[in-house]
């Protein structure tokens, strides 16, 4: 090993790469489908939580999910364009969205208030809607004060043949902590919302409140369907269940240098080497989704050993303290993986950056090459 070795070894030509393990997604889906009292909706918003919306959708449908959920209608179109014909629900759309096309393409839409209801009802076609009640987050969904009038208006639109109310949905704000009293309030408010809808003459077949955490921990929230996203890709916000992470991020060391003790590293000289060591340069930074906030805490795995990331994580690169022996350029660094071989996990990165795993997996940048492993056998889905 010289101070500035240049010969590549290991995996010549390797680039930063994100491997997606669809077998893991399949296993997680089967576990969740098994736990859910009702149907399982695979939520594949945000490009399937960064794992590829189509791949996650197909894998989930082949392993027990019966429906798909997304936020925007644009996400719904791409699933339909790809030939997926299963029931598909979209929520969080602006009032002036293209609800006529939603009806024409059989995309069900969430309705969180009277303005949305009017827009959906006025659009051509007879859209299938899920009325969305705010179960206590003051976020998406109808305010309880307006719920009864929303239900009555929806019933009138239904009688006029403008819409079909096929569902009522809510979302829990604290389901990651089963003991939080906010859960009981949310369940109670949802039960009240269902009663109110019924009293207005609505007969929603799909009644859904639980996401991943409540699907895993709280059968009282299950009703007729669970909407799960995080759990499909191995994230359990309730920390109750062992799910399988599906992402592995690797990159080559592009340069190695030997430095003296006291060498400042990176912007602001935020780190100085404590002893003579080797520094490895890895071409991944915050533009690729590695949070700058993890600087000074993060580790990566090199040749089976965890090594500290030193200095500030930059936009395109980070520096690893490789220790006294160093490695040759071209050596593969595992930034995170399932953790089975001692490598850091997405959960580790989330902890180092004071965030949640969701933010890490949805944030991996577009210049990282993606490779999907183990495309499952697909049954006919149309
Ligand atoms: C994202 C989302 C889900 C999925 O939640 P997970 O905790 O990721 O399973 C369910 N419902 C709604 C309304 C969502 O926005």
TrEMBL record:
Its EC number is 5.1.1.1. It catalyses: L-alanine = D-alanine. Residues 246-373 form the Alanine racemase C-terminal domain. The active site is at residues 45, 267. Catalyzes the interconversion of L-alanine and D-alanine. May also act on other amino acids. It holds the Pfam family Ala_racemase_C. This is Alanine racemase. Substrate binds at residues 139, 315. Its cofactor is pyridoxal 5'-phosphate. Pathway: Amino-acid biosynthesis; D-alanine biosynthesis; D-alanine from L-alanine: step 1/1. It comes from the Bacteria. It comes from Nocardioides endophyticus. Belongs to the alanine racemase family. InterPro entries: Ala_racemase, Ala_racemase/Decarboxylase_C, Ala_racemase_C, Ala_racemase_N, PLP-binding_barrel. Keywords: Isomerase, Pyridoxal phosphate. The modification N6-(pyridoxal phosphate)lysine is found at residue 45.
């Amino acid at each position: 090993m010289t101070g500035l070795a240049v010969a590549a070894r290991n995996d010549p030509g390797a680039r930063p790469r994100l491997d997606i393990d669809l077998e893991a997604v399949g296993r997680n889906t089967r576990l969740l489908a098994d736990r859910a009292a009702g149907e399982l909706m695979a939520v594949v918003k945000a490009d399937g939580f960064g794992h590829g919306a189509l791949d996650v959708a197909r894998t989930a449908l082949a392993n027990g999910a019966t429906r798909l959920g997304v936020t925007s209608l644009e996400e719904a179109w791409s699933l339909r364009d790809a030939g997926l014909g299963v029931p598909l629900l979209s929520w969080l759309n602006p009032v002036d969205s293209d609800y006529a096309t939603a009806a024409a393409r059989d995309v069900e839409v969430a309705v969180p208030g009277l303005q949305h209801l009017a827009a959906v009802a006025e659009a051509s076609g007879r859209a299938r809607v899920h009325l969305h009640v705010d179960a206590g987050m003051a976020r998406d969904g109808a305010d309880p004060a307006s719920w009864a009038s929303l239900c009555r208006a929806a019933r009138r639109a239904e009688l006029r043949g403008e819409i079909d109310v096929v569902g009522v949905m809510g979302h829990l704000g604290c389901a990651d902590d089963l003991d939080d009293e906010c859960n009981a309030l949310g369940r109670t408010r949802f039960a009240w919302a269902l009663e109110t809808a019924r009293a207005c003459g609505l007969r929603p077949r799909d009644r859904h409140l639980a996401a991943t955490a409540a699907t895993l921990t709280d059968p009282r929230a299950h009703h007729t369907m669970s909407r799960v996203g995080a759990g499909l890709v191995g994230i359990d916000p309730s920390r109750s269940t062992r799910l399988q992470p599906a992402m592995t991020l690797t990159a080559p060391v592009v340069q190695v240098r030997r430095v003296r003790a006291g060498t400042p590293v990176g912007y602001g000289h935020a780190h100085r080497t404590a002893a003579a060591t080797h520094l490895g340069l890895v071409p991944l930074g915050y533009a690729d989704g590695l949070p700058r906030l993890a600087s000074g805490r993060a580790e990566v795995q090199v040749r089976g050993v965890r090594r500290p990331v030193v200095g500030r994580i930059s936009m395109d690169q980070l520096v690893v303290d490789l220790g006294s022996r160093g490695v040759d350029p071209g050596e593969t660094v595992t930034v995170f993986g399932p953790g089975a071989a001692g490598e850091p996990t997405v959960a580790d990165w989330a902890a180092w950056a004071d965030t949640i795993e969701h933010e890490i997996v949805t944030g991996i940048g577009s210049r990282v090459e993606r490779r999907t492993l183990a495309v499952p056998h697909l049954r006919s889905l149309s």
